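Q:
My hope is that you can spare some time for a protein that puzzles me. I hope you can help me see how the letters and the tokens relate. Thank you; the sequence and its tokens follow:
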Amino acid sequence: MSNPPRTSDEIRDAFISFFKERGHVLLPPWPLVPIGDPTSMFTSAGMQQFKPQFMGEEPPAAPRVVTVQRCFRTTDIEEVGDLSHLTAFEMLGNFSFGDYFKREAIRWAWELLTEVYRLDPSRLHATIYLDDDDSYRFWREVGLPDDHIHRRDEDLNYWFSFPKDTPGASGPCGPDSEIYYDLDPSRDPAEARLHTGPDGRPAGVGYSDRFLEIWNLVFMQLYQHPDGRRTNLPAQNIDTGSGLERVAMVLQGKRSVFETDIFLPILAEAQAVVGVDYLGGAATELQAYAIRAMAEHCRAATLLIGDGVVPSNEGRGYVLRRVIRRAIYFARKVGVREPFTHRLAAAAIGRLGGYYPHLVENQAFIQRALSAEEERFTRTLEAGTHRLEDLLERLRAAGASTIPGDEAFTLYDTFGLPVELTREIAAAEGFALDDAGFHAALEAQRARARQQGAFLKGEVSPIIQQLGDDHSNFVGYTHTEADAAVVAILRGNALADLLTEGQQAELVLSTTPFYPEGGGQVGDRGNIVTPTGVFLVEDTQASGGAIVHRGRVVEGEIRASQRATATVDLHWRRGAARNHTGTHILHAALRAILGTHVRQQGSLVTPDRLRFDFTHLEQTPREALAEVQQLANEKVRHDLEVQWRTTGYRQAIESGALAFFGDKYGSEVRVVEIRENSHVFSAELCGGTHVHHTGQIGFIHIIREGAVAAGTRRIEAVTGRAAEAYLLEQQDRLLRIAERLNTSPAEVEDRIDALQSELERLRKQAEQLARVQAAALAEGLVAGAERVGEAALVVARVDALSQDVLRDVADRLRGRLKSALVILAAEIEGRPAFLAAATPDLVARGVHAGTIIRAVAQAAGGGGGGRPDLAQAGAKDPSRIDAALAEGRRLGLEALSG
């Protein structure tokens, strides 16, 4: 490259080209949701996808690798809006798996920075671990001066694959060397060499904002044992990470990552939303902070949604929701009231789409997801704000000046009002907020959640772990019957030698054809027969590395170490297999019809039915569901072969197979494919059982589609004989309805339309009669109105068909009497109904219809209330209506006399 790279795209390409020229293989990045790694919520580092290779659990795809990894970290969410912090970023990384080590990593980093990026060498500094003399020597070899190499302790220059302060923690670790860029070389050079500042805190390179970290070279060479000892790993590895945003900031000569070409288009859209020239320097400090937060959070949300995360109240979805809502919160602080997140997402996709084409493909879905969440949070803010205002009014009346922490937590937890917004509104009204009480309530909720989580997850039985590895050889993909030995009998928390008839237990076999529950598919059922007895298997589960068969002895007795024949219930297995393959077909059909944003979020596969949860923002139109079902059954009719193969995890993903977030995958995975000619219709990583040809499914029928949570929909369907039985049942129901309507099935809809038209005509007729009734009732009550001073009081029991008639009577009385308090009662559908109404002049004098009607209803054993001018209530005992009206007259006289 004749000129040094300047744009972020050029920097990214230069990094990749540099390392490819040095024998590195470019591998695709992971999505932001780490597939097959349930221990992590998000992909937060470039090395994350290589954990199995660094741990020696899997062979690497190549000894030298280069990647560009999009990352998301939750630690800095509350800081975003300043000039430096980000939640989403791109990490450039080069990796070595037992190939090159410190010398090459340092030399190549120096070459890239000084010869390709052409950074001024005098502005580069390196930190190394205290006793890492090898790194010191290699930095001196490339020409870095001694006073630009700084030794630091473990807090800065040591990498751990585990929380280092956790007692007994173990795993790979090693020293690292970080590269810093001097943002202000005009300042005293001695600042770089400081170890401690005037305040006694660490200072100098690595601790001062003057020096920006732009690359970290990790030398993964040791293994820390639970007792704290560190020994050499079998191979020495290299893991590096260079933040694209920071490198762009340096090469483009900017004072902040937000001024780089990465963010400028998004900031330009954000400033248009706010209506202030941020880029021209016209924004206030608050406006500038809000614009940066809006831009960063909408960019991060775009990346998360693009990788399959949707807003929800738990887990990853909750973090996404928090990011989006924080952007909206800051936008509202600077006066934004119109929807804007979709606009910023479009700007972000325009900037990122060249390197991440999946964002362009899913742009419509991403924008809809953001807009739906924005609309939802806007309603939440309005409802929560009203509740907060009511709370402040109550506290003010009680003479309090502080919002209790539990009340603030209720606003936050139940009504979604951010505590920051609660604090801001309260301060404007002269109230403080009990932060300690709020955090105590928050921690109490977390403690409850931890207890519930531990209860739901349960614990692995240590007994199963004692059985060793010579058991549970699964042959169920090819066999539904197998000879085996009874390895163990488990009753409660103990091993047993003998089971007698009627006793329940769990059996572990040496070999089993029984599929254990997993991947949404229920466990197999069947029989285990020994020379002395029969064991009915009612469920099969995986536990502690074993496959356990749960059930009871139905004949004779079962002894440990006996030979046995294990036979799966074919009806049960075939039904589950049909539905599992049906689930794959429906998944592929949904992606084909609705879009590739559709991703599985969960499933249930039983012999009788299937349930499939997937990401989608709105109700699936009936026409689209019909297309999905039509496409699915087309693949069934074509009787396509269902194939499965075992391959490497990475090879499976690169071939296009779908994997599911949160599932744990080993180095070898099973891919289930459905092909039509050379085209792959469906390919998923799956350990379940399937039919051999799609024609064996018979027919797929979608029963219903509905919402599970925001952004998640659920389909329930049946296949094969269950689908046939369901359709026959529906046909029989249609015939019965037709008979009751005295018509044929083909004419049911016309008959229902005619009945609805007749009902509408009768409803209008009833409304007309009700108005006539109301007019007649009101006319009779006007003459009997009781005068109290200048006002009239009407207390009466009337014969009304509905509350609407009561309201109509009250309105007519107020119109005729001008100044009046009306208290009415009626028995409607066997229950007392009460209504009170007051004219505006009486409301101005303090008459409150809601207060009166509440007391009236209580006299009849009921309750209710309402506005000062109009209120209604109900009760259960019609015999107490007259007593309630007597109380109403007393209260009415008292109110008007006062």
In short: The longest helix spans residues 748-783.
